[in-house]
Write the structure tokens for this entry.
Amino acid sequence: MSWVDLAVIGVVLVSTLIGIYRGFVKEILTLISWATAITLAYNFYHLIDPYIEFITIPLIRSLVAGFIILLAVLVVLSVVNFIISKSLSAIGFKWFDRSLGAGFGFARALLVMSIAIILISPQSDISISKDNASLVNKNNNWKKDSILYPRVEDVAFSLHKQLPKNWVQKITNYLL
């Protein structure tokens, strides 16, 4: 077992345990809360700008306005999340919720590792090979003994095939 296998096991274990602890409903509501908060902050930060004109640098003012909206939405939706979670546990849904949470945590771990592989591949010794439909590592030394990496790599390639053309390159260029 290589260090890569230990890293994969660690990511899957941590994510699955978080999913069990928090439960499926709380995980989904948190995901929806963050998506909603980010969307609202991105689309409506300009409405807060006039109220914080004491910040003279426009970029900083816009970032602060977006952060204010993000924080306000997250606080409100966290209260809603708490109420829904407590209601579900009160009716005896907790064991089922936590079982589904474990599955959600496992899926999240695979997704996060797959996205990391896809985004890192153009910048490293890994490349997407269209000829043999797999990820090709140009320097195979670090993963040759790995048992789990090829399985995560298969998931990453399947995900990569579903993405729009040139999407990975655009995201990588934006991030780096």
Q: What stands out?
A: The chain has six helices and two strands. The two ends are 32 Å apart (CA to CA). Residues 38 and 70 are 6 Å apart (CA to CA). The longest strand covers residues 126-129.
